[in-house]
Amino acid sequence: MRIFIFTLIFLFGCGLYAQTIPGRVVNKQTRTPLAYANIQVGGEQILSNIDGSFEINLEKKQDSIKISYVGFRTIKTTVSRDTRYLQVGMTPIQEQLEEVMISDGIDPAEILIEKAIRKRGENDPEKALQGFKFHSYSKFIIDNQFGNLQMSADSTSVSMKTIINEGRAYLSEKVSEHTFSEKHGSKELVTGINTAGFEEPVYEVLAMDLHPLSLYKENYKLYKSEYAGPLAKSALKNYEYQILDTISSERPAYMVYFKPKREKVVAGLEGILYLDTLSLAIQKAKAQLLGAIKLEVDHNFEYYPDEDIWFPSEQITEIRPGSGGKEVAVFGGNIRLGTLQQKKGVFDILLGSEEIPENLYLNSVVRNYKVNLNYNEGIKNPGAEIDVAINATDQEPEFWKTNRELDYTSRDEATKVKVDSILNSGKTKRKIEVKKAIAAGSYPVGFWDIDLSKIFKFSNYEGIRLGFGGRTNDKFSESYNLNGYTTYGFKDEVLKYGLGTQIYLNRKTGTFLNFSIEKDIQETASFNYLKGENTFAILIPRFVNINFFYGYRKYSSSLEHRISPKFDAEFEVARQEIWQTRPYSYINDGKQYTNYDLSTTTLSFIWRPFSKFLNTPKSNIILERNFPQFTGQIQQSFDILGGDFNFTRIGLKAEHEIKRLDRSRTEFIMEGNYGFGDLPLTHAFHANPNNPDRDNLFRRFSVAGRNSFETMYYNEFFSDKQVSLHVRHQLRPFRISNYFQPELVFISRYVIGDFENPEAHQDIIFDTLNHGYAESGIELNKILAGFGLGAAYRYGAYHLDDFKKNFAFKFTLQLQL
Questions:
Q1: Highest mean pLDDT (candidates 194-198, 507-511, 668-672)
Q2: How far apart are CA 632 and CA 634, in angstroms?
Q3: Number of CB atoms found within 10 A of residue 797's CB
Q4: What angle do CA 622, 269, 310 make, to 5 degrees?
Q5: Contact 678, 646 (CB under 8 A)
């Protein structure tokens, strides 16, 4: 009896719930999918996806359904709960919208989009308003609810890749205050952040452009990937448009479908714009990418009549497994189905890589509130685009109750518990720590970070150079570190070493006090910026063939300080003892010097005015590296306090890079060096030569550098003043397959210089650059496992009589970490 009653209750209960019926809308003649077809059922309206797929919820046992699409006959039919799948084939007809004026031969959708592009300045809040302010609450979840994804190793976000690959779950909440002004641009102050399983947030997640504010910009940036903007100046070149409908509401809108026109050349989205019929502003937008994953982004806007502007109110982004096919770029890399083999990067080779778990699901939602469109109070501390408040990670529960604009559901709580459990029992935190450290050139073991650059090197002078070095990390002390290294060259049979400490006066502003002692060798006539970009390189191409060094013992103290997030400086006081490793002497005031002492002060800076930064309580993280950027240094040597010479050395380097959506790019590096006074050759300048002086062309075969002169022989030229220019233009990659995409690069280099008193330098013969040195080259990179081939040719004033001597053939190497 109880079973009978339970069965009745169950059957009755089933009737109370809607049944989900999947389906697909296609062109009956071509069998191609119809994206964003209008489907009405039970008083509700939905749109098909870009592959024509849809799901309807049937509340009744049966109901009528209406499917309409511009240019096709409307279909009306009946569906019931017996329907398992609904395939809808629509027949094309000639149909036009009366609301749009049509000119002969011109697509009405293109006319509409042209007008919308011209009115961007009136509709984009960042162009139309002098300033605004608003708050936002966002929730970001990664969970294993649907499907099976795999993330490739070429992601620019090490932490995010590790979270997805190893952590299998992630949950964070964020509350921010946003301000914008015409003068200073945009600024986000993170007032609260709560990340499950981590004592400190994975700040890199904040750097991923999770919620782009504007759809009007040239590039639409989402999760570190860039797509062509649907209302950019070049939108009509990159997209096809079709007017699907006119939506009747208090503010009617054109419903415009867009899809990529040059997908293999320029990355694009597919979706719908709802354009206000009066202002042509975006009222709502939906963008999708379908392939190995399904990416959906919904933008919602709210209308403010006083300012006559539509302002973003909400954005919802979902990533889940797709039906297969093309890879989709997200997080700066590619995501594909888990059954495919991953591309191996250096991290994977060193540490191994596990498969992505099944059923991965990503969801992020942001809700904007407290919107003030007449804000004119300026921006505090405008240097960093995102600033994390000191107490952001320590907010009380009451703060979250007050600022949560979205419900914190039982599922969220369950995900949080699961994340805590996974991270506490697993090795995810350790893997994030290790991979971030390797990207910076170290490997953490307990309280010690091993310096990977000190382990192995090779040069013609030292032969094999083996060593060990590193520094203590925060497990040892959060107030300072101890650092040092020791290394031995088996050819020169000399032990080198260094020892120092760095005291953290203020980590937020990058204010550090350094003390060090060092005994090593340095390339003659090299000029190293204290504040140069200290990026980790597995291989330094030029180092292998350098044969002109000087030895030094250096005692130094320096103070580093980040004046602003975009401007970093360091001041050093040092004393050096210099000796020669090969015959050389310098005649100054009638006295011949082979070994000498220097007392120097050095001021160095790096200024990145257009880059974007994330300022956390403990660090300054670069969000987006934009150009140009400038590096400068001035060094003064005094003939006091035991110093033998009085000279000045100045260097200034400007770097610029133009990136394009088709993945081509052009790079410029211009550098000027100037020295005057009692300047020995050890502290003059070379122009980064990278060609061994051997007769046979193939014996000169070596690895090309990024900004070195490949046809210039080592020790051929020296200068006390010089200016150089390097230009590299890379064409968009040749997409032969997903794994084979070589890049063709054209290179041109030029340097001019002079030497005021070359006869003062004894036991060495060299030329000056007063006639100007020029070379051009070509590279085909990433042919196999990061390796490629290149060739260069010198011409102009320093062209050599022996034709072969003007050529250089090179390996190129671009390893992906």
A1: 668-672
A2: 7
A3: 12
A4: 80
A5: yes
* pTM for the full predicted model: 0.84
Decide if 777 contacts 726 (C-beta within 8 A). no
Return d(Cα 223, Cα 210) in angstroms, integer. 5
**Residue where a domain terminates, one of 433, 461, 493:** 433
DSSP at 30: T
Question: What total of structural domains would you count in the chain?
Answer: 3
| CB 87, CB 24: distance < 8 Å | yes
More confident residue, 729 or 361: 729
The residue whose two tokens read 């950027």 is 629
Least confident of 7-11, 16-20, 743-747: 7-11
Asked whether residue 312 is assigned to any structural domain, the reply reads yes
CA atoms within 13 A on the CB side of 60: 9
- How many angstroms separate the CA atoms of 208 and 333, rounded? 12
Query: What would the DSSP string read from start to end of 291-314?
Result: SSEEEEEEEEEEEETTTTEEEEEE
For the chain, the residue count is 817
d(CA 807, CA 800): 10
Name the token pair of 499.
């020892």
Nearest of 255, 318, 254 to residue 289 by alpha carbon: 318
The answer to whether the bond into 628 is cis (omega within 30° of 0) is yes
Q: Are residues 424 and 524 in the same domain?
A: no
CB atoms within 10 A of CB 405: 17
Decide if 794 contacts 771 (C-beta within 8 A): no
* CA atoms of 134 and 403, how far apart (whole Å): 13
Residue 326 has pLDDT above 70, yes or no: no
124 and 80 in a common domain:
no
Full 3-state SS string of 346-379: HHHHHHCCCCCCEEEEEEEEEEEEEEECCCCCCC
**Higher-scoring residue by pLDDT: 85, 749:** 749
Q: Where are the beta strands (DSSP E) in 38-85?
A: 38-41, 44-47, 53-58, 62-68, 75-80
DSSP strand E in 182-291: where? 185-195, 219-222, 225-228, 239-247, 253-260, 270-276, 282-290
Structure tokens at 706: 């990024």
Distance CA 311, CA 134 (A): 10
Cβ neighbour number for residue 717 with a 10 Å cutoff: 24
> Which amino acid is it at 530?
L
What range defines the domain where residue 635 resides? 507-813
- pLDDT, position 340: 26
Query: What CATH number is associated with residue 601?
Result: 2.40.160
- Judge whether residue 111 has pLDDT over 80: yes
Short-list 644, 653, 656, 645, CA closest to 674:
653
- Nearest Cα neighbor of 277 from 306, 246, 304 is 246
Q: Is 714 helix (H, G, I), strand (E, B) or coil?
A: coil
